[in-house]
Amino acid sequence: MAKMRTHIKELDPVWEQIKREAQDTLTDEPLLGGVVHSSILHHRSLESALAYRVSMKLTSNELSEQILREICDMAYREDPDVGISSRADIVAVYDRDPACDRYILPLLYFKGFQAVQAYRVAHWLWKNGRRDMARFLQMRSSEVFGVDIHPAARIGKGIMIDHAHSIVIGETAVVGDNVSMLHSVTLGGTGKEEEDRHPKIGDGVLIGAGAKVLGNIKVGSCSRIAAGSVVLQEVPPCKTVAGVPARIVGEAGCDHPSVAMDQLLGVR
Q1: Which residues touch 21 (CB under 8 Å, ≥6 apart)?
Q2: What is the rounded distance in angstroms from the CA atom of residue 243 to the CA atom of residue 174?
Q3: For residue 106, is the peptide bond before it cis, meaning its omega torsion is within 30 degrees of 0?
Q4: Kind and range of the H or E element at 219?
Q5: Angle at 38 between CA 37 and CA 39, to 5 degrees
Q6: Closest by alpha carbon to 178, among 73, 62, 98, 257?
Q7: How many DSSP H helices and E strands does the chain contain?
Q8: In what side-by-side order are the strands of the sheet with 147-149?
């Protein structure tokens, strides 16, 4: 039984699919051979590949790729949930983004996915008391990806951030599982209060491009926030809100808005 459990644990369909796609990429575009080998085929696990990719993206004259790689490797080694969440993120992007037709794409090219993985390492550092290093990763992620996620924020798994320009997620924000958001989304505070001041986003929520959710308010699970909305009050579950300030304009329209990615109001 112990051997069987070990065998099952070693099965990793997401990683196996990425490796198959990497081989296909070598055939289709040989000039990317160096990138594909160094980023994927030289690694024995998805965690190792993610550590390499994140560290290569965030390296600078201030902190070497080797040091960042050691930090990332430690995070994945000491907290298996970091790697599990990353797999869920890859599957989420593949399932929800029509521009993503291979599992390899988020890992190699999609800055929204890469920024979330950098946040996951920074969050691990924050939880383990290494707050200056966590802030350094936040700074570099903001500089490299244009995505500013405070390392203290709590974000679930299965997250898809499409395009990812100008995403801001504040310190006390909470984001549930299977949430989708588009570019220029802000989960911010209001005023100058220093305590719990950022939004709490439920599971399965879809947040449209340019939407701002401000203050310590709850957005109920499986709700939709229309593009360009400014949300200042609590949103019940399974509702659609739109406008400035946002108001309830109807039901969510489906069981899982973040998966359906349907952003048309009043059209079915």
Answers
A1: 102, 103, 104
A2: 23
A3: no
A4: strand 218-219
A5: 95
A6: 257
A7: 10, 15
A8: 147-149, 167-169, 186-188, 212-214, 230-231
The CA-atom distances, in angstroms, between 147 and each of 6, 150, 220, 243 are 38, 10, 24, 24
Overall size of the chain counted in residues: 268
The number of angstroms, rounded, from the C-alpha of 87 to the middle of its chain's C-alpha atoms is 11
65 torsion bin: left (phi>0), alpha (psi -120 to 50), beta (else): alpha
The 10 Å Cβ neighbour count of residue 111 is: 20
* pTM exceeds 0.90: yes
State the residue for tokens 């201030």: 62
pLDDT in tens, 43-81: 999 999 999 999 999 999 999 999 999 999 999 999 999
Go through the domains of the chain in sequence order and give each one's CATH number: 11-146 (1.10.3130.10), 166-268 (2.160.10.10)
| φ/ψ (deg, to 5) at 218 | -100, 135
CA atoms lying within 13 Å on the CB side of residue 178: 15
